[in-house]
Amino acid sequence: MEYRSLGRTGMQVSPLCLGAMMFGAWGEPDHDKSIQIIHRALDAGINFIDTADVYSQGESETIVGKALKGRRDDVILATKVHGQMGVPVEAPAGTPGDPNRQGNSRRWIIREVEDSLRRLGTDWIDLYQIHRPDTDADHEETLGALTDLQRQGKIRAFGSSTYPAEEIVEAQWTAERRGLSRFMTEQPPYSILVRGIEADVLPTAERYGMGVLPWSPLAGGWLSGRYRVGADLPKSKRSERLPARYDLSQPGNQRKLEAADALGKLADEAGMPLIHLALAFVLQHPAVTSPIIGPRTMAHLESQIGAADVKLTTDVLDRIDEIVPPGVNVNPGDRGYVPPALSEKFRRRRRTA
């Protein structure tokens, strides 16, 4: 497998990253089956695994740790911090908990990295990522904590996830002004259906030499080939957890279905599965390092790993641009992060805090 540079960290990673969000209660609860999937990915040449503390409230990290026993030195291991911890795993997304067991404060990062290290069964994390921006924590607070962890040897490098371009720039400037280590990677949402970051995040990350690890390159399953006009919508654990992303009464989701159908026809004409078309599209952007695939089953993994060898022709790329123009999110709600300035308390109302 041809490996790629992870930004300017000096680490080399496979062109596909194995995402572990679906290992555990959110997806495949059987640990042995999840471990088999991880081992198959490693045997296929994937050397990059991404998880997060919040995935099934730590269970995903535990499964990854089990799978890497005896193989840890061969893997670039990434995890994330920020999400609410300490709530029941079956709780709906957004369920409140202890406000100090989440976010980007020094207090929480320094505490939570120890829990991630324990669950992962390792002495170090190769890439520790801040899962989302946090307007309650200064960049200096967050970068200072991460720099200290790096100097202690507990993490090798660190990055951001789902940061808008202006936050990426501010974090880079803060690191330079304060003499701190900087974010070396960004993990944004990116797929044929979610192309908004092409206008700002991708060129910004490229300008700073950051590795880019797109999440949801199959748009949450919409580009799996199973979503076609006139067919019954497939059921999944993801659609049960996040029903708003699949509700066809929402105009944005109806547009996604129509685009997915058109892309499915294009893939048929090109003689490849839509999954390969979708992953190859993300892989071929010059700013992208490794898209994150998130299989729940062995069949899901097998359907995706071959995409690393697919190259799309200019004609096919032009046809994709006709279906979804560059820089456009088919459903604006899929951009992954809504700036707090757009929240209700900041819109046309007097601020109380």
Short characterization:
The chain has 353 residues and is of the alpha/beta class.
List the topology elements:
Layout: E1 4-5, E2 12-13, E3 17-19, H1 31-43, E4 48-50, H2 59-67, E5 76-81, H3 106-120, E6 125-130, H4 139-151, E7 155-161, H5 165-178, E8 185-187, H6 201-207, E9 211-212, H7 237-241, H8 251-270, H9 274-283, E10 292-293, H10 298-305, H11 314-323
Parallel strand pairs: 3-4, 3-10, 4-5, 5-6, 6-7, 7-8, 8-9
Antiparallel strand pairs: 1-2
Helix pairs in contact: 1-2, 2-3, 3-4, 8-11
Please tag this protein with its features:
10% strand, alpha/beta, 353 residues
Structure, explained:
The structure is a single chain. Strand 4, helix 2 (59-67) and strand 5 (76-81) form a beta-alpha-beta unit. The relative contact order is 0.13. By secondary structure, the protein is α/β, with parallel strands linked by helices. The chain has a single domain (4-346), classed as Alpha-Beta Barrel (TIM Barrel). Helix 2 (59-67) packs across helix 3 and helix 3 packs across helix 4. The model has no long low-confidence stretch (mean pLDDT 94). It starts with a strand and ends in a 30-residue tail after the last helix. The chain has helices at 31-43, 59-67, 106-120, 139-151, 165-178, 201-207, 237-241, 251-270, 274-283, 298-305, 314-323, and strands spanning 4-5, 12-13, 17-19, 48-50, 76-81, 125-130, 155-161, 185-187, 211-212, 292-293.
